[in-house]
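S.,

Sequence below, as promised.
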Amino acid sequence: MTPPRPRHLLRLAALVAAMAALALLVLDGARQAGLARLDADLQNRLTLTRHAVTAQIERYRYLPALIGQDARILSLLDRPGDDRSAANAYLKATRALSGVDQIYVLDPQGRALAASNAGEPGSFVGQDYAFRPYFRQALTRGAARYYAVGVTTGIPGYFLASRIGSAEAPLGVAVAKVDMGGLQATWASADQSVALADAAGVVFLAGQPDWLFRPLDPLDDATARQLDGEQRYAGQAVPTAAPLRAALTGLRLAEVPLQPDGWPILAAEPLAPVERQAQLLALLAGLSGLLVSALAVGWRQRRQLIRVRLNQNAELERRVAERTEALAHEIDQRRRAQDELREAHESLVHAAKLAVLGRMSTTIVHEVSQPLSALDSTLAAAELHLGAGREARAVASLAAARALLMRMQKMVRNLKSFGARQRADPPEAVDMARVLTAGAEVLAPRLRDLGQRLALTLPPGLPAVSGQAVRLEQVVINLILNAAEAAAGAGARAPVRVALEPAPGGLRLTILDRGAGIDPALQDRIQEPFFTTRVTGEGLGLGLSITRGILDQIGATLAFHPRPGGGTVTVVDLPLYHDAAHPAAAPRLDDRLAG
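The prediction came back faster than expected:
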């Protein structure tokens, strides 16, 4: 066997190095992504834990202050030597109703006068709690919060204290002890690695039993003496316990403070799954790189074979190129012909718009001349008012003149928008209710001139149809104007009714008039270009032809039916945008013809 050449060995070494670099890059990226997901999970867990702890404490925060307002408690603090049974019974009933662990009342010296567990083993009555920080803080600040192991019961709890009386002459302190054991049991049953530590950094609630009563970091001597003096964790040997943070190896740790105490809440997750996933992805990346490299080598060899075949087929390629050039020339000619046809169609569409405006020109001039005359009179009145010193009436006249100007601007703007030359663009989502409203505004002067009224029925919430808004506006203006002129020619007084409603696969536009109707003999010719039934010379006979062309481009249909009682029913079925089916079913046409 021939030994590999040095150049091939160098290529192989470079390939191995590249795959190793790719694997390391994927390993680092997957590790960072996994740590980011882990941190997000930890933050979510910390947020839930913080809310749970806060809810557990806040549900009893009001209780000490409420107890301090009771007459039995105030009477006991005023006369400590009296009978305490009423106060003890009140505290016991309050404990049963609220669900708190214990409630007791201290005198100004810190001795318990009454308690909810009076007469029970481990009763607080008679015990001295003056050494507890919550007692001293409540006397000076009015309220206090403190977590510790009970010196009487040995059961840990969260102590909420509230001063009774004024700061100058305190009567005592009311204390509610909240048992947090239920919350800890929930964490433990779910095997959650979460914990809550106090301001000294000692864990007093944890989902893992071996985390309890351990400092997060080594305690200094002053803190250890303070914990011992307060008997905060009596019997737990906290100063000699191993620091927890240093022992949490192989875990991702996160913490947030619990307000208002500033106590840290900790949550931890193992790093091993993230590391395993990152290593697996790196291995897959390396194997994928090797596979791609192998495919690249095979592709290169195949390419060399193809090159040989291409050289043999050079003559065939030349002939194909010649034929392709001829086809391209033919396609170019067809494209130019299509562009010319499109330009001709656009010109016809624009001509149809101008024809409609021509039919409305007299009414438009009338609509403009009336506001101009009124504007002249209004400005003259304003001049007279100013000359006579009637400024308020002059301002009112100027405001009326401005309203007349705005009316003319709106009408001219609508006419300019309708009469502007537009090119056919790709279909878009069109709000037909807005199109019909705009068309009605353009037609309003002509309808008044014809003595016709328009009744629009536009249900809310209809879906969009496919097309172009300007072209669909031209469609509705052509059809409504034809219907109105037909009704005026027949002397009809009933309004031209225009309705928009859902139909299977789209929306249905229906226009009903009381004109003379369409002669059946002309039914097939009315949509031909340059065909018109008008004998007065109005129009070019392009309206319905252009309307049919616009509707055909968007896949819509146009149909005319005789209306019972005289007149015509014009029906336009429009496709929905994106062909989305509307759940509402369209009413049958026969049910609407007599309306």
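The mean pLDDT is 80.

Coffee later?
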